[in-house]
Hints:
Layout lengths: L19 H5 L8 E6 L3 H10 L5 E7 L3 H11 L4 E3 L2 H5 L6 E4 L7 H9 L3 E4 L7 H12 L5 E3 L7 H11 L8 E9 L19 H5 L26 H4 L1 H12 L6 E7 L12 E8 L2 E8 L1 E2 L24 E6 L3 E6 L2 E6 L13 E4 L4 H13 L8 H20 L3 E4 L4 E2 L3 H4 L16
Parallel strand pairs: 1-2, 1-4, 2-3, 4-5, 5-6, 7-10
Antiparallel strand pairs: 7-11, 7-12, 8-9, 8-16, 9-10, 12-13, 13-14, 14-15, 16-17
Amino acid sequence: MRRRSFLQTTATAGFAGMTSASAERVLGANSRVRLALIGCGGRGRTVAGNMIKVNGAEYVATCDVYDTNAERARDELNPKAKTYRDFREVLEQNDIDAVHIATPDHWHAIPTVLACQAGKHVYVEKPLGHNILEGKAMVKAASNAKGIVLTGTQQRSAPHFAELAEIVQSGQIKDIRFVRVWNYANRAPDGLGTEPDSAPPTDLDWDFYLGPAPKVPFNRKRFLGTYRQFRDYSTGRISDYGTHRFDTVHQIMGADRPRAVSASGGRLVVGGMGDQPDFQQVTYEYPGFVLSYEMCEFNAHGVGGRATPGMKYYGAGGIENRPNGMAFYGSNGTIFADRIGYEIYPEDKFAEGPHALKRRHVNVKRSTDRHAAHFIATIRDGEKPRCDCLTGHRSSIIPMLGNIAMEVGKKLRWDSDKENFIGAPDASRLLGREARKPWDMISI
């Protein structure tokens, strides 16, 4: 395999927020930060567009196995940038300070591990890895890295969620023992529809795109915006949408280590191609509270009954539906929240008196631009990462646990220290997968 020397690199720096080695790499407020975009689809270009709004941030390279996307990103971000097809060539360039990894999920782990070994700073989209063992390998690489690894869970940079964390952890909402997270959409009846296999586009390296995933013929449904409907490349909607919300639950509740998980669901209504469930309900037991996750792809209503005048809700497609959100239920009040706002509802019998909880509603803008600017600040100014690799890993684990529990069909106990199931070898076998050669390169 080309450039296998990356795997032999021995890094010596420790990692605890900001390491001494990474401190040496702080560039100063007026210095340029030279970036490479690895994975040039819509999400990558959107975040990169926010990144270059920061003074001194510059993309000097774009990289994608699909030449059309690499060239489009170059044209949008910096016409002078160099385009690549092989990310390993990017990592060899001494004039690149940081890589921004926005590939499909099954390509998050390998570039991150090799970028850490190459001494680059890393911004990697969630989830961390395609499976739990890949995430563990990423955490190990980050712990030995000279640079920063920031997870692209941009809600960590949203001030209203930091405000809610303070409200909850200071005890203003009392006795929160139940938390709900939901993601609803309506893809019925045909979902992706069907499409026959065909020859790949002439400017796409299909074998490279598949990478560690099983080798299959090209099908456009497995590519670009619809790849997450296939388990080969993604862990599904619970991971795509849920990871952000699980991360926010961890932030607000101050807990990130569940002790047990159970799940049910399957492909119940939606037809067409793909093998991901269209319904999933997962129950997680944390110390002190229970988290319930709901995912439905044949109904977009979610939680209805919106009534606050002027309040906006994330992803709402009608005047009554609320397809995405989180709810925190306490003995004196309830919080409903999403990435563009929150509402606090006092319990009626606690609505009066000097210590009464006050009715409140807040709307904000999305936080992708703040998180992109935060990444540059971690490199240039030594700002502590708001969602480092370990934090991102612990949030990415949650949807993966739900998928495993649904597959084995029983309640599972989770050892958060060993990151393994207790007394369930059938579930433990699903912590990872055998990667296709020659991409079977990362291990813990």
